[in-house]
């Protein structure tokens, strides 16, 4: 059977679960660690087409990014020349929009920044007449360089599980930004293509200090924020915002009052799911829910399955379950009520 090799990336500390996901999809997986708990090489017993198809059919939760290894060489300067020669021979890149994703560890011989290394490689590839771009590339050239070796591969962006380099989507922190938690919802918007501006009225459960609430207000929604803790002072008189300083198990809403429910309570997952499902009467059919699920147990895959079943039992259809780049010890569920 044909085997294919990939560099796989998960959030720091979650590589073992990404490996488990690959094992469930492809059977025995031979893997070698590149960056402890985060980046590893996996040899999968399937053709590249099959790998892409199976991953697309069952999108993983913890495996954040995957890039093919089609070129491998020692980690020295001559290897760079050989890499350039190899890429110049990849005719499908000629005249195309190409994104160059480069990750380099600190012990790679090239001491300047990954950006400078990328520029050097792009200069060597001028003969291809490719348009090097970040936005909407037709192809991604992924390069990973560490002290021992340099790896590279060419793939379609949709086959990498993320169109970001290593699946790491970064946002700039705005002046006055209330919390880093806001990045989670910003990432969910991009990653799950959630049209937040199309909703009208959201309930934000566990809203303090107010990063998610401020994001939803920026998208033009009315927001009801529920949290016994104080909201940030910049939000206390915000138009369109109603603040309920209460525990979520004490609040009552009208039926179908909201078309969006978000919850970022960092609480025991089962208690969170019980509490949120108890409030789903207030979410109109067709409404969207975005909920973070804290990973407290040793067996997160089983726990996630259980939490998903609790929501599915309450007419929630799971669109995605994913550990976002900005999730720490948690994952994000994106659901729609039917
Ligand atoms: C991680 S913080 C939320 C951060 C928020 N998403 C943001 O963007 O700023 C979790 C919040 O959940 C709140 N919380 C925990 N249990 C709750 C409950 N039973 N009802 C309401 N809020 C709760 C906590 O008070 C805390 O403020």
Automatic annotation (TrEMBL):
Descriptive protein name: SAM-dependent methyltransferase
GO molecular function annotations of the record: methyltransferase activity
**What PANTHER family does the entry give?**
RIBOSOMAL RNA LARGE SUBUNIT METHYLTRANSFERASE M, RIBOSOMAL RNA METHYLTRANSFERASE FTSJ DOMAIN-CONTAINING PROTEIN
Which keywords does this chain's UniProt record carry?
Methyltransferase, Transferase
Q: Where is the Ribosomal RNA methyltransferase FtsJ domain?
A: 179-267
Q: Which GO terms describe its biological process?
A: methylation
CDD domains on file:
AdoMet_MTases
